[in-house]
Every structure is written in structure tokens, then in C-alpha cells.
Amino acid sequence: MDIKHIRKDFPVYDKHPDLIYFDSAASALKVQTAIDEGMRYYTDLGVNAHRGAYHLAYETTELYEASRLEVASFIGALPEEIIFTRGATMSLNIIARALEQTIQPGDEIITSELEHHSSLLPWMEVAKRRQASLVYVPLTSEGRITVSEFERVLTDKTAIVALTHVSNVMGYMTPIKEITRLARTKNAIVILDAAQSVPHMAVDVKDLDVDFLAFSGHKMFAPTGIGVLYGKKTRLEALSPVEFGGEMADEVFKDHATYKALPLRFEAGTPNIAGVIGLAAAIRYINGLSLPTIHEHTEGLHQYLLAGMKKIEGLTIYNATAENPVVTFNIDGIHPHDASTMLDQFKIGVRSGHHCAHLVSRFLGVNSTIRASMHVYNTIEDCDALISGIIKTRDFFNQF
Ligand SMILES: Cc1ncc(COP(=O)(O)O)c(C=O)c1O
Fold first, then answer.
1. What pLDDT, on a 0 to 100 scale, did the predictor assign at position 194?
2. Helix or strand holding residue 160 (H, E)
3. Of 257, 287, 317, which one is at a domain's C-terminal end?
4. Among 55, 227, 338, 366, which is disulfide-ready with 87 (CB 3.0 to 4.6 Å)?
5. Please, what are the averages of pLDDT over each run of 10 residues along the chain (400 residues)?
């Protein structure tokens, strides 16, 4: 891959040519085509979708629905199985709320300590309200979810399995296909948080056979404020909407209302039309490069960075075997916020903190960590800069 050429597709590098960006797991940089396509909606159309009968409205609706088709085909879904939301968090909240009434006292909801708060907290709240229990899959000593550990917690009472596909802190992949197959034997519903997997690997919902899946546009070069909730058609059809208003209504009477068919029944209010169009453009960009090619590049960098970091004394790396290109570490004796502030002096952007996943920090027995995550625009030079930045940071703080 011609990275110099690829970097030109990400206009933030024009404004900040020295930027060394290692925070793609929080939000990926935005690709020019997604910005342009979203902006073109505002300049050339600017009207609502699914409402008016004039030609601009018609064209907007066409573009909105064509984008839905592209998103659906990207993950192997039917277009009516794609619900546009504000992001993975909203998708996961919608599904927890929609399924809440199906949860009975005593039911069990399987989750894990690897979950992002957006995958955990909606179920914690449902469990509290419905007198259900949260059951945690025991993690291996390395911090992984395995099929055998999952099997140990799967019971006749399991109603929901809500797990991350790839951990945003550890970069570990959950063996979700096998887990789903086992969950089926108990008629449990499987909800997959795919916020970190969809931007990096081919995800086919039919192959995984999960019931619901969530991801966000902004982690895959698209605008913020756009996300996706995938639901199996039969599962979605069985659910009542949780948000009301706008074009999701079919017929409204003084004392009751009926709601439209999928997917509009779950899209209350004016949607983020520019975001939807931008997301489709980002998907076209990813398809143009191809996910396997992107993976080959980022995995090469990942291994290069790991090899360099392993040679640094006084460093603890927590996830040397991660599948996603993310290295989570601490410089011994130095607070991650201090370290990342120092790294910023070298124009290096890494994430420090608990990464919206407190239970992972608790599992690791630390307050917080530093996370360096990569995507297609990163280079070997970026990795070299990070390695030398870490050494300088360590030496700077160790002199006191
Ligand atoms: C694994 C995971 N799940 C969910 C989310 C929430 O995504 P968003 O903030 O786009 O709603 C994130 C974002 O960091 C994530 O990494």
C-alpha cells in the first residue's frame, strides 16, 4: 500500500503534518470522501428524507436508502435489518430497552469484564429493574473470553448474551460464532458490540449468526453522530419501538397509533442524513482498499511496534497477543496521564485512562493504562517515533 498516497485522503494531516496519531480505537481520522459526500448533501440537497413529495426530497430519500443498502451489504445484512442511530452506544441502549420487557426475574444476562461501558451499563440497568442477574464470563489469566469459560456460565436461565466482539482496551477477539451456537441451545439472544471489529475485519452477521450487532461510523473514517444497529429481521419484527415520533408512525388516532415496517419503525425523528451518506462513502473507501489489505498493513505495524516496545526496559505491556492493532501498556512508576502529556510534546496522540472500560483496569489491577491504537494511515515512522517517545518519557520522569 502506498501510505503517502493514503495519508493524502485524510485531510487532518494537511493541517497537522507532524501528527503522529495512535488513538484510532477512540475515533479514526476522517477520510476526505466521507467529509465531501456528507457536505454535498448539505450544499446540494439539504432537505429531509422520507417526508416530502418534491424532487429534492425524493433525491434525498433515494440517497439515504442507497446508503442503507451499502451499509447492509458491508456486513451481510438485509437493508431492513439496518437501523441508523447516533452511534454504538445508542444502538446498544435501544436494544436493551427494547428487550427489557422480555426479561423475567431470575433471568441471567451474560456479560464480561472486557465490556466497554456502552455494552455493560444498559444491561446492568435492565438487570436492576427486572430483578435479573448479570453473570460474568470468567476471563483467562491473559484476559480473554473463551468458549470453555462461556460454557461454564451458560445455563437454562440465560436470556441474554451481550458481549464485545473485540475489546477496545485489550484488542482481543471473542470467539463469538461458537458462543452464539452454544447460546442457541438455550434460546438466549446474542447481542454483539462490534464497535472495534467492523472497522478492522470483515464481519458477516449471517455467518456469526448473532441476533443484534452495534457499531459506530466515527471509528471507520466516517463522521461522528452516526451508528448502526443491526437486528435479525425476525427479531426486530418481534420488538416494539422504544423511541416515538416523526416518520416512524404509520397511522395515528386520538388514543392509539400504529407504526411503520422495518427499518423506519426504529428511526424516530429526523435522522442524521449527512452522517448516513458519509458512512456509506467511508465504507466505499474501505472496500476500495479492501479490509484484508488494510489488515495486512496494520498488523505489520502492530508487530513492528510490539517488537520495538518489548525491548524497552521499565514497560509493562498488557496485551502482546491482541488480534486488533492496539498496544496497551504502562511505563512503570509513571502515571499514564503524565506519560501521554509528555508524548504529546512529541506530537504523539495516545489515549490514557480507563478507556470507558473500568472493569478492564480492575482486572489488570491498575488505575489506568496507555493505549496506542492504529489504522490504515499509520506508518513505520509513526511507530519509531512512539518507541523513541516512550524511551524519552521514561528517562525524563526517572531522573527525578
Ligand atoms: C468496544 C466499544 N463499544 C462501544 C463503544 C461506544 O461507541 P460510541 O462512543 O461511538 O457510541 C466504543 C467506543 O469507544 C467501543 O470501543
1. 98
2. strand 158-164
3. 287
4. 227
5. 94 97 98 98 96 94 98 98 98 98 98 98 98 98 98 98 98 98 98 98 98 98 98 98 95 97 97 98 98 98 98 98 98 97 98 96 96 98 98 94
User: Ligand 1 within 6 A of 89 CB?
Assistant: yes
Cα of 215 vs centre of ligand 1, distance in Å, is: 7
**Closest alpha carbon to 109 in 124, 129, 97:** 124
Known catalytic residues are 356
Question: Phi-psi region for residue 76, left (φ > 0), alpha (ψ -120 to 50) or beta?
Answer: left
User: Directed axis angle between helix 32-40 and helix 273-289, to 10°?
Assistant: 150
Q: What domain count does the chain have?
A: 2
- The pick from 116, 121, 176, 351 for probing ligand 1's pocket by mutation, whose C-beta has the most ligand atoms within 8 angstroms, reads 116
Neighbours of 316 (CB within 10 A): 12
Q: What is the pLDDT of residue 246?
A: 92
Q: From residue 85, give the alpha-carbon distance in Å to each of 30, 102, 187, 273.
A: 19, 22, 27, 11
**142 C-alpha to center of ligand 1: Å?**
22
Residue 285 contacts residue 29 (beta carbons within 8 Å): no
Residues 6+ apart with CB under 8 A from 123: 96, 109, 111, 134, 160, 162
- Given the DSSP bridges, would you call strands 348-349 and 326-331 parallel, antiparallel or unpaired? unpaired
Same domain, 272 and 172: yes
